[in-house]
Amino acid sequence: AYNIHVNGVLHCRVRYSQLLGLHEQLRKEYGANVVPAFPPKKIFTLTPAEVEQRREQLEKYMQAVRQDPTLGGSETFNSFLRKAQQETQQIPTEEVVLEVLLSNGQKVKVTILTSDQTEDVLEAVASKLDLPDDLVGYFSLFLVRETKDGALSFVRKLQEFELPYVSVTSLHNSEFRIILRKSYWDSSYDDDVMEHRVGLNLLYAQTVSDIEHGWILVNKEQHRQLKSLQEKVSKKEFIRLAQTLKYYGYLKFDPCITDFPEKGCHVVVSAGNNELNFQVRLPNEQIKEGSFKVTRMRCWRVTSSVPMSNGPSGSSPGKSEVKLELAFEYLMSKDRLQWVTITSPQAIMLSICLQSMVDELMVKKSGGSIRKMFRRRVNGALRHSDSQQAVKSPPLLDSPDASREPMAKLSSKLTSVSLRGISHSSSGNDVGANDFHGNYAFEGIGDEDL
User: Fold this and answer.
1) In a domain, 357, yes or no
2) C-alpha torsion sign, points 72, 76, 78, 83
3) Predicted structure pTM score
4) Which residues contact 55 (CB under 8 A, 6 or more apart)?
């Protein structure tokens, strides 16, 4: 069996024959010319070297399928991963109560099936809250980790290939929770959400929470005004004032390490307003702040170093520390591109944020609206748009082979737009061209933008 990891955590175990079955089903539905080549069957027992070679081929195959907009978004592929997740975790299909957090700490309890996918759970939560159907797409479910002081650390946005109940219970840790938050970046979309009472309440609760956690910067005078609006229960005015404050609508990440402006700097990264904001502590303890605009990132990649456990087979899966890095190539000045690297366990979540910002920019540029960005059910089947259908967060496979190197450099490719070939790269790292995902928003940049 091969282990499939998502964001460094074991998602499911599958056999070669199951993956072959998936491949044949995809070929039947989409044609042999669309589906990537599959590692061939072997008549004789595989040697350890051949086992490793097959694992690498299967990993490439799974990543290629996941990144194809048609195959990766297909119900065939996603239902295969959901079913495998449920079987691996040995959770039978039954009715359960799932607790979903709101930003103000309130808990919404929904009765669902253990086999319900992310979309179903989101709709169940919306229904319980009386959130109208046309606003459901403005929100998403996120997996978070609650720290001892009550702060939240974002792990990832729940994807369409997983079962939220299974994802959270299989971690066997009560610190992990599922939370409902808005999932767009442009604050002009707040107007749509505020038209409805429940949307307004959810947005208000999230804004209050972000201010309390210090994510949104408030000076004394602004704090006094906000307090006054809160006492009058003027929710819309409260949000309008908050929209003018620094870091409104940003997602704040845990402290991590960056190589900008020099190696080993401690940094707090926030994502929002089509940028990554850096608050860097330099070696001389000086704090510097700067922002990297998403439109000036030519491409980016996520890489992970996965330590392979050669210890006893009893060691628990999914517990080994995975070192994740997000690197992006940035247009520093008219003719100068530079790579900037962030080393953080939240690198995949950062990449998801970058991708969804680009998607939102592209939808606006093409004259689309946010309502069109979200998935819709068509004839009972889920149809995904190019945008909010989440970043293609591919599974990573490994096989239990003791002869492997203790560290394997694996590239975790995340993209929801098709890959551009990147021909010239100033990066010294030996990562192939298709480990990147190009940024279409970058292509429109002109001299006046500099």
Assistant:
1) yes
2) negative
3) 0.81
4) 2, 397, 398, 399, 401
